[in-house]
Write a structure and sequence with these properties.
Length: 394
């Protein structure tokens, strides 16, 4: 009996893979679109961001200064920092708000008087904090002003015969304990988990939609269900075929990232070593089963492929939930997190790219919870195929 069930699973699996193999365009999209397009896109975006940052830091920054005549020494100091001043427009706030200028300075009317009296002289940075393209110019101006303020403050103390070091009650140093793997994996930890989770979660979608809703639409499901084969074996064969296709897509994706790390300087921070890839693959295998079983359950009752594809809209949003949540509210890893779908994969992938050790207890909790959920969804898909109305086209 067991041999017959396994034979049925194997036969259905080969049949589904053979069918999608005939549709070469769909197979090419399934195997090549994600594995090639998205890694190249990420590497390209990373290279562009790095090139822009380098350009913004190296170029001479020209900023409008309102009240430029009030602080000639400050203007001269800024010039030594690669920041040149120009006359400000009539309405500096409006110019920055309209994005005509990235950042501007407003020197207070009482600047000279406060300076001579030894009081803090007012200098206002005019900027729009919601504009990401202005972050580097704003940071450069702020850093230059801080440096000028510290330098002038020290000179004031020296003029009064006071050692400037007395104002520093603490000498604060920085000791970064992050590993080199963690530093290299910052970009990977921010971008790669979502993409890999999505790839594994919906990697077999092309095949499973055609093998479920597609068969029902073509009215070929009824003859299949009329055979003596157990319906559980039929469903398992379809899921196995979709998982095989999804696994191949996932492997190609990881290989594409490994190769892309050798093509772009910005991608060299990505930890795509063979060991890291093996760990990522091990983490994502349960998600491949979860996604395929869930989509089988949902698409089985769809009357057409078009109707089944409507589920893709919200399914693609699910892996985004932990990414957004962790960006808004970062949390420390706790055992319960490794029982939550998507969040557990996100946390484990982040640990891998940061080079952190994953203990046996963590692996045990994760594997038990994820494979348990996959088994539950598989059982639900099998039960749905026992509904006789599925054999009737809509």
């Amino acid at each position: 009996m067991k041999t017959g069930i396994l034979a049925t699973v194997w036969s259905v699996m080969k049949k589904e893979l053979r069918d999608i193999g005939r549709d070469r365009r769909t197979l090419a999209l399934a195997l090549l679109l994600g594995p090639l397009l998205f890694p190249l896109l990420m590497v390209g975006v990373g290279s562009m961001a790095e090139k822009r940052a380098r350009t913004e830091l190296d170029r001479v920054l020209e900023i409008p200064v309102e009240g430029i005549e009030r602080a000639p020494n400050l203007v001269a100091f800024l010039a030594t920092q690669g920041i040149t001043a120009k006359k400000a427009p009539a309405d500096l706030d409006a110019a920055v708000a309209a994005q005509h200028e990235d950042v501007g300075l407003r020197i207070g009317a009482g600047f000279a008087e406060d300076w001579r009296a030894g009081r803090p002289a007012v200098v206002e940075i005019v900027a729009d904090s919601t504009r990401r393209n202005a972050e580097i110019p704003i940071a450069r101006v702020r850093s230059a002003l801080d440096g000028y303020g510290q330098q002038m403050g020290a000179l004031r103390l020296l003029a009064r015969g006071i050692d400037p070091s007395v104002t520093r009650a603490l000498a604060v140093g920085d000791r970064d304990v992050a590993s080199e793997d963690a530093k290299r994996g910052q970009l990977l930890a921010a971008l790669l988990p979502y993409f890999l989770i999505l790839t594994s979660f919906l990697g077999g979608a092309y095949l499973i939609l055609d093998a479920t809703a597609g068969e029902r639409e073509r009215q070929s499901l009824e003859p299949l269900l009329a055979t003596p084969a157990a319906r559980g074996a039929i469903v398992s064969g379809k899921i196995a075929a979709a998982c095989a296709l999804g696994l191949l897509t996932l492997l190609l994706t990881l290989l594409a990232f490994k190769l892309s790390a050798q093509l772009a300087e910005s991608a060299r921070m990505l930890d795509v070593s063979t060991l890291a890839i093996a760990k990522m693959l091990f983490v994502l295998l349960p998600m491949l089963l979860i996604g395929t079983s869930l989509l089988t359950y949902l698409a089985a009752s769809a009357k057409s492929v078009k109707e089944a594809q409507s589920h893709m809209n919200w399914l693609m949003l699910l892996p985004m939930i932990p990414t957004i949540m962790l960006m808004v509210n970062p949390i420390k890893s706790q055992p319960w997190q490794f029982t939550v779908p998507f969040l557990s994969q996100n946390q484990l992938l982040m640990k891998i790219v940061r080079g952190e050790w994953i203990g046996a207890q963590t692996w045990g909790i994760y594997l038990a919870a994820s494979f348990g959920l996959a088994a539950l969804l598989w059982f639900a898909a099998v039960r749905r195929y026992h509904q006789e109305r599925l054999a009737i086209a809509g």
